[in-house]
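Exercise (ungraded).
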Amino acid sequence: MNFTRRETLALGAAAMAVAALPLPALAKTTDELIAEFTGGADVADEGVELDAPEIAENGNTVPIEVAAEGASAIMVLAGGNPTPPVATFNFGPLAGASRAKTRIRLAGTQDVIAVAKLADGSFARTSKTVKVTIGGCGG
Amino acid sequence: MADNVRPRVKVPKKAAAGEVISIKTLISHPMESGQRKDGDGNTIPRSIINRMVVDFNGENVIDVTLEPAISTNPYFEFDATVPESGEFKFTWHDDDGSVYEDTQAIEVG
């Protein structure tokens, strides 16, 4: 089967387009996720607390706690995981405090990031490094 | 539907009006992340609980979006305000469309 120069170029361009398509959907970076959450607004460094162990022996279950006074939502990200999002907490009118504890998976030593949407509509972020002895993504 | 999914919820039986109480929830679920491979090198498909909603008498307390990075048997602890006697309703949404529910009554006295 012979291809003309024009056909070959078209095929090549099509293949490139297909190859490029799934990438953004697969791996959104933490910066992109934060921008999506905040809508591009400025993010302050004060106003949200993230509690996580300094050293986690088992990355399969790492206890964390997030809190931000009056926040309507808190997003947690783990930049070193195959997929960075961890969880998003949306606090309703009957939430006693904007605080939640859970257990997460970490693939390896990395920074865990929390971004909160505060009561006045502004955003705050914090991060904490967790050392992981055994990774938790089964790789 | 994942097998043996069993929600466990800890809510105090009684509270004062307007009191802030702490609620703990745990639901048994493998939370297959979609990253692991079986013995033959095939990826095990993702199967997780992707959302948890807690309401009290129809008003929202917390709505959590869960991602694959939440550990097996998802555990949550959070605070809720109790304005009157009523019922907490807990709902978990599975990737496969299953919905798991639990309710807990609380008395204000």
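Further reading is listed at the end of the chapter. For now, observe: The mean pLDDT of chain B is 93. The first strand of chain B starts at residue 7 and ends at 10.
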